[in-house]
Amino acid sequence: MSKQKVLITGASKGLGLAIAKKLSGEYDLVLHASKTESFTEIPAGAELLCADFNNPEALSEFCKKLKKDHGSSLYAVINNAGLTFDKSLIYQPEHEIDTILQVNLKAPIIICKTVMKLFMLNKRGVIVNISSCVGETGNAFQAVYSATKAGLVALSKSLAREVSALSTDHSIRVLSVSPGFIETDMTAILPEAEKEKYLKMIPANRFGNTNEVAEAVAFLISDKASFINGTNINVNGGMV
After folding, report:
1. Which of 6, 10, 85, 163 qualifies as a cystine partner to 96, CB 3.0-4.6 A?
2. Which residues are 235's β-sheet partners?
């Protein structure tokens, strides 16, 4: 019996790679990055499907290939790919704003549009959109990034309700996961004073790690989470 197939975008490093490692073996994986060279580690048996999501034509081709090559067997999608350019909105060039919106929000929307059609035919499937704690709290110098992450939460809740409005005979779920401050290359370069400020906001008194977020995602796409739908799951150590 063949394994269920899962697409993970932004899977070449950090959180995406941690999710891929967690799901490897249990699922057949389709891993995305902007280019093949981005991968320094590929879980055994995974297929690569690369595209620069900042290029609308490349995104369109990506979705066509996803549908053609994996449409009949696709079970879950984890929209994890994202980027940011941290600076005051006052000084943010419009081309950076466009890039953040395109990669972080429009690309997941178009991918959701593609796979929802497939899931409606198959009458089952799971989408997990990776948001962020700043989608709820906001963050100075990340106005556009925060806006895209808030958008993913609203997208997930809306699609869950949309599926129900279209059909009652299905087991399709749409969720979002909002990690808090996670130990990554990005947090490693924070000044100590900045780290201390963030730690004071976290009752767990530490940053999280990528494996803890990957565990949550693995649970959410499993049948064990079959009654969790249309909601956002915070993985943030109780951050306030």
Report:
1. 85
2. 179
Spatial separation of the C-alpha atoms in residues 139 and 135, rounded to whole Å: 8
Closest CA to 146 of 128, 156, 132: 132
Domain membership of residue 149 (yes or no) is yes
Q: Is residue 163 part of a domain?
A: yes
Round the average pLDDT of the chain to a whole number and report it: 96
Question: Residue 44's closest CA among 59, 16, 58, 23?
Answer: 23
Assign residue 185 the CATH number of its domain.
Answer: 3.40.50.720
Q: What is the pLDDT of residues 40-51, one digit of tens each?
A: 999 999 999 999
Residue type, 171: S
- Which of 27, 75, 145, 198 is catalytic? The answer is 145
pLDDT, tens only, 108-157:
999 999 999 999 999 999 999 999 999 999 999 999 999 999 999 999 99
Q: How many domains does the chain have?
A: 1
Q: What spatial distance separates the first Cα and last Cα of the chain, rounded to whole Å? A: 45
Is the full-model pTM beyond 0.70?
Answer: yes
Full residue range of the structural domain in which residue 89 is found: 5-233
For the question of residue 145 being annotated catalytic, the response is yes
pLDDT at position 1: 59
